[in-house]
Amino acid sequence: MNINGKTKLLGIIGNPIGHSFSPQIHNSALSHLALDYVYLPFPVAPAKLSEAVLGFEAISLVGFSVTIPHKQAIIPFLKEISPLAQVAGAVNTVCWKDTGWYGTNTDIAAFLSPLLSLERNWQEIVPVILGCGGAARAVVVAAQELGCPSVHVVSRNQDKLKDFQASWRSSMLQIEIQIHSWESIKDLISQTALLINTTPIGMYPVVDISPVEQSFWENIKPDLIVYDLIYRPSPTLFLQEAAEQGALIITGTEMLINQAAEAFKIWTGQTAPIDVMNQELYHQLCF
Ligand code: NAP
Question: How do beta strands 80-81 and 225-228 pair?
Answer without folding.
Answer: unpaired
